[in-house]
Amino acid sequence: MATSGTTSFTLDMGDIVEEAFERAGLELRSGYDLRTARRSLNLMLLEWQNRGLNLWTVQSAELPLVAGIGQYTLTGDKLDIVEMALRTDAGDASKQSDLNMNRISVSSYARQTDKLTEGRPIQYYVERTPAGITLNLWPVPDSRESYTLSYYYMGRIEDTGSAASFNIDIPDRFLPCLVAGLAFHIASKRPEAMQMVAPLKQMYEEQWSIAADAFREKASLFVSPGGYNNL
User: Fold this and answer.
1) How many domains does the chain have?
2) Is 191 inside any structural domain?
């Protein structure tokens, strides 16, 4: 039996919108239909970023530290920190070393009595602002060594853009979920499709569960029992 021999199937934004309208029992007829669908798509991508860690958005970055400076504002495309290490002697094959840093809460950071203490940073507090995130390090970097933050962050999913020929910034395996979600959002805005809202919502959540489970971290997890030692 002959097969295509290709594995490159995808959908651009125009195809996604058309498929979603068909699932909602509607027809894509006007420029406004495309515009309102694009708006729903962008809102849905923001919703996905609130649902949890999207592994395809995780990227690595480095940030050189300056002695005496303990606060650093990251660019707005960085939504959260996944892991962070303090790297010394970056780029030196014989001396480079990473030390894992601990993320602390705002209350733990607030309880630090001397936030200007200088030394090797071992903790960080992530301060969230409308424009992005700010890192507050403790202790404040000193001048004894050359420090660099090596970290992994969850990046923002790119906007859909205005051209119908653009692809969406998601893995192809999430396309069924994206189409199902857009069909639900479109139906919820059209009175003639209100009877489709409930089944489309159920289909959307099922597709999300399937896609999220397929794209979860596959590494082994080891849990060790803890406790207190009486000294």
Assistant:
1) 2
2) no
